[in-house]
Amino acid sequence: MAIDHRTLAIALVLALAAGACARAPRPNMPRPSPVREPAAPAMQQLIPLPKQLDLASGAPFAIGASTVIGVTSADPAAARSARELAEWIRRATGLRLGSQASAGNRIDIAIDPARQALGPEGYELTIEAQRLALSAAAPAGLFYGVQTLRQLLPPWAEHEAVLFPQPRTVTLPALRIVDTPRFAWRGAMLDVARHFFAPDDVKRYIDLLALHKMNRLHLHLSDDQGWRIEIRKWPDLTAKGGATEVGGTPGGFYTQEQYKDLVAYAAERFITIVPEIDMPGHTNAALSSYPALNCNRQAPPPFTGTDVGFSSLCVDNEDTYRFIDDVVGEIAALTPGPYFHMGGDEVKTLEPEKYRAFVERVQSIVQKHGREMIGWDEIAAATLLPTTIVQHWRPDAARTELARAPRLILSPANRLYLDMKYDADTALGLRWAALIPVEAAYGWDPATLLPDVPPGRILGIEAALWSETLATIRDVEFMAMPRLAIAAEKAWASPVEQQGWPQFRERLGAQGPRWTAMGINFYRAPGVPWK
Ligand code: TNX
Q1: ∠ CA 195-196-201 to the nearest 5 degrees?
Q2: How far is Cα 473 from Cα 327, in angstroms, rounded to an integer?
Q3: pLDDT value at residue 14
Q4: CB 411 within 8 A of CB 463
Q5: How far are the Cα atoms of 208, 345, 418 from residue 441, in angstroms, in the given order?
Q6: What pLDDT, on a 0 to 100 scale, did the predictor assign at position 334?
Q7: Number of Cβ within a 10 Å radius of residue 25
Q8: Catalytic residues
Q9: Helix or strand or coil: residue 171?
């Protein structure tokens, strides 16, 4: 039975109101029977919203000591998803589910190659009293199905250290979800150059992306203020160029081993790392590390301010292209994903012809290393290969140039720049593009942003977080959340399911307890009914 979303919302509110509160555990008391938790209010709990969610009228699935979890396909990805789900369930209930047949209900996880219609990232989830079945055509789909189940479990599942003096029975509502994403590119960019963020901080950001079914993390690895990735053939890039950051505090960099570990951590969560080395501008850290990259062969001093547009590699110098070839080669060797981002933005010191020739030459170097090039929207002025991707960011970028771009990612600064202040009182962040309160972050449509661009060329959207004003991961979280979750909703949820702000803000508010349990420093935006 398909229910319209308003009816569903009312039913869920009633279900919540009827639910009993969990009793606090009491030490030194005889162990009572397991606490029963109320069924999770299904749709309310989910961001992004699934493409199709039908509540069923049957009894819920109660996870208890005799519930069994197993895989019904031989694929190792199914076994891994089963382990991951069992771990979320353990954290939610205190129960370690077995896989041996029992009298209880069961969870079946399977890769089903016959389900090609679900695509590489889709999944189907059926919940009935006796059986919970999750299937997908490919491993990523199972991962996303597990994230959906994770959001249906109580929020305390996110709190690693919680103790269970008594196990809890958690129920999941009877339903059927058939879910596929709207866009293939569901990205986030983190600027680790203006301020450096240690590997564990980046992993925390990756965890946020994974929870929201995002699948690209673009790392802005170099800028005027710092160079953040070890390049073995050019060691001073990090020895000198990595030492600084905005404000003059010590910077930092990722060793190649640390970077590979981040790539692997992301890959386990079906997130592709997109490395960016910004050029020819935004290069003071490289220029100050190697005199040979400068036209006058003199290294400028390090830069720890926030101006943009003053630096450029010497585009007339062959050393520059040897440098680029080495950098792209080493990074490509560390990065299994197909992309290399060359930046290309805000070059104010080069004539347009020289700029275009530079972009085209870098494009052929990137192609030689077997990667698809991405660049900020200025590169649309050059002649681009069909595989090249233009990342739209300037709200006033030339429409005719963008319409020629072979493929696009949308990061309009006045909607998707997470470093823009929420309102005039936000202490952190910038405001050059706009103030972006949560309602404005939600209230636009990627399909109509660029009317001249054929919709098939838009790969998806990416939320960008620049770190001129953000020095710690707490700062990052405050600017990103909740707008990163909003970006995920826009990237995944089908247009027909996007229900408008009055409904969406209820769902946003329902995330409060989960994010709190995760220890996220999110902005409690006014106008959102935070639970
Ligand atoms: C513009 S977006 C930039 C960055 C700044 C950002 C601050 C882009 C390609 N260039 O260099 O950090 O604005 O919002």
Answers
A1: 120
A2: 28
A3: 31
A4: yes
A5: 18, 23, 9
A6: 98
A7: 14
A8: 346
A9: strand
pLDDT in tens, 410-422: 999 999 999 999 9
Question: Both tokens of residue 257?
Answer: 């081993």
pTM: 0.92
Q: Decide if 290 contacts 311 (C-beta within 8 A).
A: no
SS3 per residue for 114-129: CCHHHCCCCEEEEECC
Give the burial string for 39-60 (b: 16+ CB within 10 Å, else e). Answer: bbbbbbbbbbbbbebebbeeeb
Cα(464) to centroid(ligand 1), Å: 9
Q: Tokens standing for 514?
A: 């989960």
Q: Would you say the CB of residue 374 lies under 6 angstroms from ligand 1?
A: no
Tokens 């992004």 — which residue?
48
What's the pLDDT score for residue 41? 66
Whether residue 164 contacts residue 138, with contact meaning beta carbons closer than 8 Å, is answered with no
Residue 10's pLDDT is 34
Taking the CB of residue 339, how many other CB atoms lie within 10 A of it? 20
CA nearest ligand 1 atom 13, residue = 466
Residue nearest to atom 9 of ligand 1 (CA): 345
Indicate if the pLDDT at residue 59 is higher than 70. Answer: yes
Does the Cβ of 434 fall within 6 Å of ligand 1? no
Asked if 127 contacts 176 with a C-beta cutoff of 8 angstroms, the reply is yes
